[in-house]
Amino acid sequence: MPVDAPAPPHRSRDRSFLLAMAILGGAYVVLIALMVVADLASTNVASLSAAIRSPEIRYATALSLASATASAALSVVVATPIAYLLSRGQEGRESTRPRARAAAYAAVDALLDVPIVLPPLVVGVSLLVLFRHAPFSWISEHVVYEIPAVVLAQFVVACALAVRTLRATFEQIGVRQEQVALTLGASRATAFWTVMLPQARPGLVAAATVSWARSIGEFGPVLVFASATRMRTEVLPTSVYLELQAGNLEGALAVSVLMIALAAAVLVLTRVLGQSRLAV
């Protein structure tokens, strides 16, 4: 009769390794789940209903959704050419590309990390200072502490994240198919629109999702650059802040639960739409 081969001696070590990885990663997943459960358990239908009926919260909800959507759309539009050029500029590092050009790409790449690594309040202060100088000061009264300031504050950070997502997408696609299109007589623009962009669709969906999620939760830059004026520049994150400042913990929790529900609904819808388009 055939005899089963003994298990490799490292099999038990593999199981221990995977178990350790699962425990370490699972601890973070459980922490996030417990945070959501704590929010849900600490609020009630009455406070949530009161928040939804409040004209201020309704306005903040509408402004949050509109500004986050505008910020995400603008982020994808601006991030796409930046990511494409950076991904192509990084190719051929081993070639005889001029050092000045390589240094320029590296400088731009580093500069795009600034909105991500800076403290959020510093981003808001920087925008505020920027609009004290020409030519931005010419339109300052129509931007600072107004609705455009909300979108701009969200966009500055969200676009940097979109660039990172789309750059990885373009780098994964590579240049072979684009070069084939160029050799067949297509222009660079035609190759980009007909070859590169359709293949980058998953990245575009991911970039839009990340940008929207970051925008809907942006607080520091919005608070400094747009303020938190009720029925004017108040968005949901600043609503939580205002409720806490007023000592209304129940109201802050209700708005937090509302933000969780809105973010979850939109993110799920975005991913479902992205997967359905990929299946086509």
UniProtKB/TrEMBL annotation:
Name this protein carries in UniProt: Sulfate transport system permease protein CysW
GO cellular component: plasma membrane
Keyword Protease: no
Keyword terms of this UniProt record: Membrane, Sulfate transport, Transmembrane, Transmembrane helix, Transport
Family in the record: Belongs to the binding-protein-dependent transport system permease family.
A GO term, aspect molecular function: ABC-type sulfate transporter activity
Transmembrane segments: 17-37, 57-86, 107-131, 143-163, 252-274
Localization in the cell: Cell membrane
Role played: Part of the ABC transporter complex CysAWTP (TC 3.A.1.6.1) involved in sulfate/thiosulfate import. Probably responsible for the translocation of the substrate across the membrane.
Origin species: Botrimarina colliarenosi
Domain ABC transmembrane type-1 stretches: 61-270
Subunit text: The complex is composed of two ATP-binding proteins (CysA), two transmembrane proteins (CysT and CysW) and a solute-binding protein (CysP).
UniProt xrefs under CDD domains: TM_PBP2
Gene: cysW
Membrane protein topology class: Multi-pass membrane protein
